[in-house]
Amino acid sequence: MKGDWISKVADGVEARVQRDIDNGVRTDGETVVCASGISPSGPIHLGNLRELMTTHFVAEELKLRGHNAEHIHSWDDYDRFRKVPVGVPDEWQQHIGKPLCDVPDPSGKFASYGDRFRTQFENSLEPIGVQCRWIQQSKNYPAGMYRAQMRAALERRNEIFDILSRFQTKKLQTVPLEERRAKYSPLSVYSPVTGKDITTVLDFNVDDGPVTYQCPEGGVMTFNLDTDATLHCKLKWKVDWPMRWQSERVVFEPGGLDHASPGSSYTVGRSLAPALFNWEAPEFVQYGFVGMGGRTKMSSSAGGAATPDFALRFIEPSLLRWFYLRRAPKKAFTMDFGVDIWRSYDEFDRLSARVGTEKAQPLDAVVIQRATHTSMGPIPTPKRPMSFRLLSSAADMTNGNVDQILRIAQDHLDEQVSADQLAQDMEPRLACALGWAMHCLPEDERLQVRSEPAQDVWDGLDADVQQALGLLRDGLSEHWNLTKLTALVYGVAKTVRGLPMDAKPDQELKTFQRQVFVAIYDLLLGADTGPRLPTLMLSLGRERVSKLLIP
User: Fold this and answer.
1) Dist. CA 382–CA 402, nearest whole Å
2) CB-side exposure of 315: number of CA atoms within 13 Å?
3) pLDDT at 1
4) In the chain, where are the structural domains located?
5) How many beta carbons lie within 10 A of that of residue 363, not counting itself?
6) Which of 67, 205, 286, 494 could form a disulfide with 260 if both were Cys (CB 3.0 to 4.6 A apart)?
7) 451-551 has which fold?
8) What is the average pLDDT across 156-161?
């Protein structure tokens, strides 16, 4: 399908692959590698997820086009521990400078600090269908996987420095260029004495591989890059990234704004990769920020940066995929966990229902297919996508009583379905709606339904509104599902005004309808607004609504 961002990016990747074949850089049929990468230095949030989702969708499109595409993901867990985040004991200051794989997990439940966030994130990806070949740099670097590339970088360190210096802000440089060149090393070394990278490379013997470096506590030390079985060093980031493009033969990899700006990692890497590693920089897509929005009582516990496993407690997997599908990567967006989540579910359901109808746009079916399926199979999706508004309102009204929620859902159906079957058919949406109502909805936004009819409210209504409410109550028995109830709620005002049900409302009718709606909310909730009335009424049940509407 042409015209959407995924297809456009895939077109660019295909052109790159063909160019490589024409230039003899790759063979026809060789694996097309699409890459992502994250440093597990803290909770891996929905913004980080955008990197993987962008890569995932492009790789899936390439597979659909017949390519042998692979999504690889690098865990940069051999990066240094830079700072102690909020919530981690202050004594972890002693670990700053160590690789993340060697920093202890504060809880003691995981092998390391980096392993905690890596494991949690990997586990959260299974429900949304993202499968990668995982690469841990904490294994590759010590094992000598990049031994030859590190040697090449050391041999050509002056050339690397000259390329890097072209992107440096000269007015911020206080040390003369030649002095900086003489001291520059593309290699970081972790000292066996301190376990940290607070070392200075002094020399590299090009002939047989010894690297000499200075450790503040160990003095002048040496290791052999060519022969040591285990290495405790790595290339610095702006050299490391283009090196891995060549090593893994990457042809597509997205990056955030910090990687795409002038003088940033991708800009520098685009020059380093061909000059140093004889590899053209991969096709690149910049992705924007993903924020967490909505007023919920869970905002503080999510830390303002929700993780995928947090999101999946309230957002079903196909909907979560859709959030990343629907906008071009460069556009920032906010994932709302407040009441706007209702609108997201409604919009996704309308799009799904439109597919296969004459109202469908050409891209609609493609979007839904991508949201609900991968090359490995279907994504968990409810067989009966019951209104999330209805289910969450019912969960709120019943304080999470599943039996009562199912009874309300059954009232919505035009057919007889057992409660057990219905519960099964509504997953994972039922669990998401229940979780959202119980854990996200602030206390002051919970429904407070009147326990007794409000005679004083009824007495204060004008006669036309009372007549409309009488018509509404009389019609409940014949209109007790979401579609019919919606028509009834909007139609009673038209009937009172002597208008046909299909009449388009003018401003006067809209004003009268609003008066009727406010009266219903006041009689049911003691408020002038609330959830959509048909959903609210189904949640309360027909008998309770009838009792409260007219004293």
Assistant:
1) 17
2) 30
3) 46
4) 5-148+235-287, 168-233, 451-551
5) 13
6) 286
7) Arc Repressor Mutant, subunit A (1.10.10)
8) 96
Q: What is the CA radius of gyration of the chain?
A: 30
CA 433 – CA 127 distance, rounded (Å):
17
CA 298 – CA 316 distance, rounded (Å) = 18
Contact between 129 and 324 (Cβ < 8 Å): no
pLDDT tens across 359-386, in order? Answer: 888 899 999 999 999 999 999 999 999 9
DSSP 243-269: HHHHHHTEEE--EEHHHHSTTSHHHHH
- In single-letter form, the type of residue at position 41 comes to S
- Summarised one tens digit per residue, pLDDT across range 304-348 is 568 999 999 999 999 999 999 999 999 999 998 988 999 999 999
Residue type, 144: G
Dmax of the chain from CA atoms?
100
One-letter amino acid of 95: H
Q: What is the pLDDT of residues 244-270, one digit of tens each?
A: 999 999 999 999 988 878 778 999 999
Number of residues that make up the chain? 551
CB environment 137-152: b (16+ within 10 A), e (fewer): bbebbbebbbbebbbb
User: How many beta carbons lie within 10 A of that of residue 287, not counting itself?
Assistant: 24
User: Both tokens of residue 14?
Assistant: 């295909």
Residue pair 222/235 in contact (Cβ under 8 Å)? The answer is no
Burial of 301 (0-12, 13-18, 19+ CB in 10 A): exposed
Tell me the C-alpha distance between 466 and 230, whole Å. 84
CA-wise closest residue to 9 among 52, 53, 54, 69: 54
Distance of CA 271 to the CA centre of its chain: 31
CATH topology classification for 5-148+235-287: Rossmann fold (3.40.50)
Residue 46 tokens, joined: 């929905």
Report CA 72 to chain centroid distance, whole Å. 18
Starting from the edge strand earliest in sequence, which strands make up the sheet with 69-75, in order? 133-136, 69-75, 32-38, 250-252
Q: Which of 272, 287, 274, 253 is nearest to 167 (CA)?
A: 272
Give the containing element (helix H, strand E) for 418: none
362: buried, middle or exposed (CB in 10 Å: 19+, 13-18, 0-12)?
A: exposed
227 and 217 in contact (C-beta within 8 Å)?
no
Residue of 77, 104, 80 whose CA lies nearest to 197: 80
